[in-house]
Amino acid sequence: MNNTSNKTRELVKTALMAAIIFVATYAIRIPNPATGGYSHLGDCMIFLGVILLGRKNGSIAAGIGGALSDFLAGAPLWILPTLIIKFIMGYIMGSIIHLNPTSKKLQMIGSISGGLFQIIAYTIVKIVLIGFEPAILSIPNIFLQTGFGITIFMLMSVALTKTLVKKIN
């Protein structure tokens, strides 16, 4: 394939992963009355996107998919923070798994590291945007969301290792 075909294929896969992340974030929401926000399954798709697309494109899909969800959920204040936080979360994971994306140990370390960044970053942003007390009260919720996302991702990763789905690159 020529360079234009490769770039088009890369763009399409990144856009498709952003759409999958959006759907997992937007369609499956568990409201959090403490913050007015919600928990979702988008994080597991972000981690999956990073192993399927790599650090750069997986992170781009993460930021776009998450931000699009905030946009359509009517949360314009959160679009930019989500875009940045989800991108960096994916990039952290991608940087850790970079040399061996199929290593389950590195996937676990990478997803936990990216997830911890997300928890800290969202807490800081929430302190600024909604106040100290609601931000602190939301920590258990984002911890559960992130932990659940990591768990589902690891289960999916094991299943995908046994199939040809990972051959889409």
UniProtKB/TrEMBL annotation:
- Pfam families membership: ECF-ribofla_trS
Among its keywords, does the record have Glycoprotein?
Answer: no
InterPro entries, from UniProt? ECF_substrate-spec-like
Q: Which residues cross the membrane?
A: 12-30, 78-97, 109-130, 142-165
**Is Transmembrane tagged as a keyword?**
yes
Q: Which domain of life is it from?
A: Bacteria
Q: Which residues form a coiled coil?
A: none
One GO cellular component from the entry?
membrane
Which UniProt keyword terms apply here? Membrane, Transmembrane, Transmembrane helix
Protein known as: ECF transporter S component
